[in-house]
Amino acid sequence: MTLALPTQVAPIPGSPATIRSKAARFAATADAIHEAVAGLRTAIADTRQHESDALDQLAENATKVADRLASLQGRYDDASEALASFAGDLESAQRDAQALVAEHADAAHSESSYDRQIAHFRDERARTTDPVEAADLNRHLLTLAQRRDGQAAQAADAQARFDRITERLRQSGGDAARKMRDAADGDGFNDGWWDDFSGWVAEHAEILKAIHSILQKITMALSILSFFFPVLAPFALAAAAITAGLGLVLAATGQISWIDFALDVLAVATMGVAAAASRTIGGVMTALKGTRVARLAAQGTSSPLRVVTGSFNGVLKGKNGLSLLGGRVRLPSPTWLRQVNSVKGTTNAHFLRVAESAKAGAGGPLDDILLGIGRQEILKIRVASAVTAGSKAVDSALGDALPNLLDLFGDTDHETPVLGPVADWYEGVEDAATWRIGS
Phi and psi for 381 in degrees, rounded to 5? Predict the structure, then answer.
C-alpha cells in the first residue's frame, strides 16, 4: 500500500530527542549495574581472606547475584544501543522526508498550475477561427502538457522515495525491537505477561489479601447457615471456590504461602464431600421409608405408610429448632444444634435420629444395607470435616497463636527449649512454602 505524502512532517512524541533520552537512561542504568557488580565482586574477593562458613555462604550468594546483574546489564546496554541507532535513523528519515514533502508540494502545485493553463488554452483553441492561431495554440498546449507530465513524474518520484524512507524506517524500528526482545529473552529475566500480572498483584496485595480474608469469613458464615438452610449450600460452595481461586492467585504470585492455599482447597473439598454425602443420605432416607412401608405391608400391618411416617415424625419432633409456637419464637435446642453441626446438615442429623430411634418397619437385609450406606456417608463428612478443622487449628496455633504468645512474654521466650524452636520451625516451613511460580 502506498503511503501518501503529508503536507508537512510534524513533531511526534517518539521524536529522536525523546528516544535518545530513553537510550541515555538505559545506558545510565547499565552503568549503575556495572558499578554494583564491580562492588559485589570486590566484596567477594575480600571475603576470601577470611575463614568463615557464613562468609563463604554470603560470597556464594553474592556471586550468583553478581552474575545475574551482569546479565541484566547486557539487557540495558543492548536496549540503549538499539534505541540510539533507531533515533539516528529516525532523525535522518524525518530530515529527508521533510525535503521530499517540500519537493512533492512544489511539483504538485506546478502540475495543478499547468493543468489550469492547459484548460484555458484549450478553451481558446476551441473559440478561434484562425488556422494559424490554432496551430500556435496546439504547439503551446503540447509544451504545457510535457511540462505538466514532468512535474507529475517529479511528484511520483518524491512519493516513491518517501515510501522507501518509510520502509527503511520500519525495518530499522523492527530491528531495534527484535534486538531488545532478544536481549530480554536471553538474560534470564523474563518480563512476560506473568511478570506483569505478578507485579500488579504485588502492587495490590494488601487489598487482595483483605478481600481474601473477607471471603473466608463469608464462606464460613454461609457454610454454617447451610447446615440449617440447605438452599444456601450452593452459595457456600461457590464462595469457597472463589476464595480458593483468589488464594491460588496470591500463592502463585508469592503473596501468601501455599499452605494457606491448601487450606482453602481443603475447605472446598470438605464442602463438596458434605454436599455429595448429603444428597446420598437424602436418597437413603427416601429409600428407607419405602422399604419399611413395604415390609410392614408384607406383614399385614394396617396403614403401613401412616405407621412409618408417624415413626419418622416421632423422632424428628422439634428438629427445626427455630420456629413459632403460640406466637413466640422457639430457639433450637443445644442438643439439636450439636447434632446438626457434627454431621454438617439437618438432613444428615435427621438420618441419625431415624437410624437410632425409628423402629417401625425396621430390620431385614435391605434396611441394614441402607443404614450402612447412610452411616458410611456420615463418616465421610466427619472425617473430611475433622481433617480440615484439624489442619486449620494447627496452622492457626503454630502460625498465629504461638508467635503472638511468645511476643507477649518478650523475645527471651524464643530461647525456650520447646516453644521458641517450634515457632521458628513453622515460620521456616511457611517461608519455604511461599514462592512465586517462575521465580
Answer: -60, -45
CA distance 6 to 94: 12
Give the angle 307-324-328 at the CA atoms, nearest 5°: 135
Please give the share of the chain, as a percent, with pLDDT higher than 70. Answer: 78
Name the helix (H) or strand (E) containing 323. strand 323-325
Mean pLDDT of all residues in 395-424: 71
Q: What is the pLDDT of residues 181-238, one digit of tens each?
A: 777 665 555 556 777 788 889 889 899 999 999 999 999 999 888 887 888 888 988 9
Are the beta carbons of 209 and 255 closer than 8 angstroms? yes
353 has pLDDT over 80: yes
Cell numbers representing residue 38 in the block: 564491580
Angle between helices 346-357 and 258-298 (to 10 degrees): 40
What residues pair up with 329 in beta bridges, in sequence order?
Answer: 324
Question: 392-398 long-range CB contacts below 8 Å, 24 or more apart?
Answer: 392/263, 392/266, 395/259, 395/260, 395/263, 398/422, 398/423, 398/426
3-state DSSP assignment of residue 65: helix
pLDDT at 418: 67
- Assess contact for 21 and 87: CB atoms under 8 A: no
DSSP state of 331: P
Of 212, 166, 253, the residue nearest 435 (C-alpha): 253
Task: Name beta bridge partners: 325.
Answer: 328
| CB count in 10 Å sphere of residue 170 | 11
The enclosing H or E element of 324 equals: strand 323-325
Question: What is d(CA 265, CA 242) in angstroms, rounded to the nearest whole number?
Answer: 10
State yes or no: pLDDT of 173 exceeds 70.
yes
Residue 395's H or E segment, with its range, is helix 365-396
**Who wins on pLDDT, 107 or 412?**
107
**CA atoms within 13 Å, Cβ hemisphere of 372:** 7
